[in-house]
Write a structure and sequence with these properties.
TIM Barrel, about 35% helix, 8-stranded parallel beta barrel, 9 strands
Length: about 240
């Protein structure tokens, strides 16, 4: 069976080239030759607008664009061949995101992802045909950044590697999601086989070094999400 080319996904656009979750970052990702642009959506704490921001610290440190401004930019002719991954950081505004995607004609090329399975269920009920991505694991911060939590995190990763293949295959088979968005530490050959056998896609985040990118391509994952999509060009170099 012929393996499909790796899907090249820009994280927050191209966050190592230009500030993430901005039109400038989307432009940088486009110039780097991505197939898909991932960006984050978060509701404002002050006025309820939907913002292009990863978290409230991110939103408070700048004047973020709104979801509508981002979609208007991505709906332009320059991005007509680019898919989008709209990552919902919290539950509660799923239908507003769907409405915005409809308004800008972006639903056909959108994948909506979330760590919250309740959000995926809400979207599935409202728009059965839209592609959904279940993002794992559900984390607020990286436990590997602290020596105090690293050992426990390693144990948790090993446990997740054991149970995730069956859980992912079941979620895809039951129609609760179409893709798994997995942190690279969770990706194993068994997970790749399970997702593929269930008819789903496997996107891996967030990979910013070439050796890991090459290894994931060899494993046969659907796509890799990177802050520096310029790395993808090196995959074609032997």
């Amino acid at each position: 069976m012929t393996r499909r080319p790796l899907r090249r996904v820009g994280h927050k656009g191209a966050a190592l080239i230009a500030p993430g979750n901005t039109p400038a970052s989307f432009d940088a990702a486009l110039a780097a030759g991505v197939d898909m642009i991932e960006f984050d959506v978060l509701p404002s704490q002050s006025d309820g607008r939907l913002l292009l921001a990863h978290d409230y610290r991110d939103a408070g440190g700048r004047s973020p664009d709104t979801l509508e401004q981002g979609l208007a930019h991505l709906a332009s002719d320059a991005f007509s061949e680019i898919e989008i991954d709209v990552d919902l950081k919290l539950p509660g505004y799923e239908l507003r995101v769907l409405a915005a995607l409809r308004e800008y004609g972006m639903l056909p090329r959108a994948l909506i992802s979330s760590q919250y399975r309740s959000s995926l269920a809400t979207i599935r009920a409202a728009e059965p045909g839209v592609r959904l991505g279940w993002s794992v694991p559900k984390l607020r911060r990286d436990p590997f950044r602290s020596r105090a939590t690293t050992l426990g995190a390693l144990v948790a990763v090993q446990a997740a590697q054991m149970i995730l293949p069956a859980r992912a295959a079941r979620a895809i088979g039951e129609g609760r999601c179409d893709a798994l968005m997995a942190h690279w530490r969770l990706v194993t050959p068994r997970l790749v086989r399970s997702v593929q056998s269930a008819g789903g896609e496997l996107y891996v985040w967030t990979v910013d070094d070439l050796p890991r990118l090459r290894a994931l391509e060899v494993l046969g994952v659907t796509g890799v999400i990177s802050n520096d999509p310029r790395l993808f060009a090196a995959l074609a170099v032997n």
